[in-house]
Specification:
Structural class: alpha+beta
Largest sheet: 5 strands, antiparallel
Order of helices and strands: HHEEEEEEHEEHHHHEEEEE
Length: 411
C-alpha cells in the first residue's frame, strides 16, 4: 500500500473513532484537531451525540484515486475513495437526525520535503531537550508556551461529496426495490376495480398483468427520479461556477509575487479549517484565528459543518504589506433548533496575512510572549493574554479572519 493510501485509510478510521470515543484524530493537522475539539465541546453542551459510520462499498469504488500537486515547499496529494456514510445525531438516546448516503471522501494529505522529523527538540527558552509532543503542551521545565508548525505528513483538509456511481450489488438492490414496489402499487391500485368486475377469480389474472406493467412502471419511475437528482446536482454546481471559476488562478496571481512559496492547495485547506474554528467556537473573540473588530453572527445552533469542495474569490487586494482576500465558502450544515435539519450555506469571510514575512520552511517553533506583560500562554487556543488581557495578533505569522457572515444560498 502506498504511503498516501495508508494515511488516507488511517484518517478515515480515526474520524469514525472520534465520533464514538472523542479521541482526536492523530493524522489531522493542528487546525483539524482544534476544530474537532471545539465541535465535540458544542455537542456535549447541547447533550448531543454524533456518530459517523464509514463503510467501504466494495468493487472498484473501494480504490483510492489521487492527484499530486507539488510546489517549492509542499507536496499535496488529493486522495479520494467512496464510502457509504451514515451520520446519526441523538439526545438522551433518542435519534433526532439520521442520514445514510453514498459519499466520495476527499482528503488533502500534505508532505514537507525539507522538514526534519526530530524526535526531541531543545526548548528555545531554557534549552532543555524534550519530546516534541511534550512541548506542544508547554515546556515541562520552564512552562513556556509555543506556536509550532505541524510535523508532516498530515491530513490538512477533507470534504464529502455525494457519489452517484453504484456498484453491481447496489444497482441490483435499487432496481429490485423499485421493480417490486411498482408491481405492488400496480396490483393494489387495480385491486378494487378487478374485484368489482371479476370477483375473487380475477385476482390471479390481475397478478399476472401487474408483473410486467408494474416492473416497467417501477423501473421507469426510478430512472426519472435518478435523472432529476442528477439534473438538480448539475444545476447546483452550475450556479456556483460564475463565483468559483478561476479562483485558484486569481489567488495565485495576487499572492505569488509577494510569497514565492505560496501553495494554493495548502491555503484552501487552511481557510476551510479557519472557517470551521469560527463556526464551532463559542467565544469567537478569544480564538487566535479571529482578528476582527465587528460583531460576529451567532453560529451556536450549527452542530455539524461539511465543506462542499467549492470556494470563490469575490475580491483580493494588497495594502501596506498585508494581503486581504474576500472569499465565499460553500458548506452543508446541520442545525439543532426546534427540529434538527440540514441545509446548504455560503459563508463570506475576509482573511488577512502579513506578506512581508516569508514562510518558514520545515518544522518551526516560536515562543509566545505577551508584548504587554511578558507572560507566556497558549496562543494556539487563546488570543487574549490571560494575565493582562492584551491581544496576540497571529496575523503577523499566518492567515486570520477579519470578518465572517452567512449569505443566502441561491440553490
Amino acid at each position: 500500500m502506498k504511503a498516501e493510501e495508508q494515511i488516507y485509510r488511517t484518517f478515515a478510521g480515526e474520524l469514525e473513532e472520534w465520533s464514538r470515543t472523542d479521541k482526536t484524530p492523530g493524522m489531522g493537522n493542528q487546525d483539524i484537531r482544534y476544530y474537532l475539539d471545539l465541535q465535540r465541546e458544542r455537542l456535549q453542551r447541547r447533550n448531543l451525540r454524533m456518530e459517523y459510520r464509514l463503510r467501504l462499498r466494495g468493487e472498484h469504488l473501494d480504490n483510492i484515486h489521487s492527484m499530486v500537486y507539488r510546489d517549492q515547499i509542499y507536496t499535496n496529494v488529493l486522495a479520494v475513495s467512496s464510502y457509504l456514510q451514515r451520520t446519526t445525531l441523538s439526545r438522551g438516546g433518542k435519534v433526532l437526525y439520521e442520514k445514510e448516503d453514498t459519499q466520495r471522501f476527499y482528503q488533502t494529505i500534505t508532505w514537507m520535503e525539507q522538514q526534519r522529523l526530530e524526535e526531541t527538540y531543545c526548548c528555545p527558552n531554557c534549552g532543555a531537550a524534550s519530546p516534541i509532543k511534550a512541548l506542544l503542551e508547554g515546556c515541562p521545565y520552564c512552562h513556556t508556551r509555543f506556536v509550532m508548525s505541524d510535523l508532516f505528513p498530515k491530513v490538512t483538509g477533507y470534504c464529502f461529496e455525494h457519489d452517484f456511481f453504484m456498484n453491481e450489488k447496489e444497482s441490483k438492490a435499487k432496481c429490485t426495490k423499485w421493480v417490486l414496489g411498482g408491481i405492488l402499487v400496480t396490483f393494489l391500485l387495480s385491486l378494487p376495480a378487478t374485484i368489482k368486475a371479476e370477483g375473487l377469480i380475477g385476482l390471479f389474472l390481475l397478478l399476472l398483468a401487474s408483473i410486467p406493467i408494474g416492473a416497467f412502471s417501477g423501473y421507469f419511475v426510478m430512472s426519472i427520479c435518478m435523472m432529476f437528482r442528477l439534473v438538480g446536482a448539475a444545476v447546483g454546481e452550475a450556479s456556483k461556477l460564475p463565483n468559483v471559476a478561476g479562483t485558484k488562478k486569481k489567488i495565485d496571481k495576487l499572492v505569488r509575487p509577494y510569497d514565492s512559496a505560496f501553495s494554493y492547495e495548502h491555503f484552501s485547506g487552511r481557510i476551510v479549517n479557519l472557517l470551521k474554528i469560527m463556526i464551532y467556537a463559542d467565544d469567537v473573540r478569544n480564538t487566535p484565528v479571529y482578528d476582527g473588530q465587528g460583531d460576529v453572527s451567532d453560529f451556536s445552533n450549527i452542530v455539524e459543518s461539511v465543506y462542499q469542495g467549492s470556494m470563490g474569490l469575490n475580491k483580493g487586494w494588497v495594502q501596506d504589506g498585508y494581503c486581504y482576500l474576500d472569499l465565499d465558502v460553500y458548506m452543508s450544515d446541520i442545525y439543532d433548533e426546534e427540529r434538527m435539519y440540514r441545509k446548504n450555506d455560503i459563508f463570506r469571510i475576509v482573511v488577512c496575512k502579513n506578506i512581508r514575512k516569508q514562510a518558514n520552511l520545515g518544522f518551526s517553533i516560536k515562543k509566545v510572549q505577551c508584548a504587554g506583560c511578558g507572560g507566556s500562554f497558549d496562543a494556539t487556543r487563546n488570543r487574549i493574554c490571560p494575565y493582562c488581557g492584551n491581544a496576540y495578533h497571529m496575523g503577523e505569522d499566518d492567515w486570520v479572519v477579519l470578518s465572517i457572515k452567512k449569505c443566502k444560498y441561491v440553490i
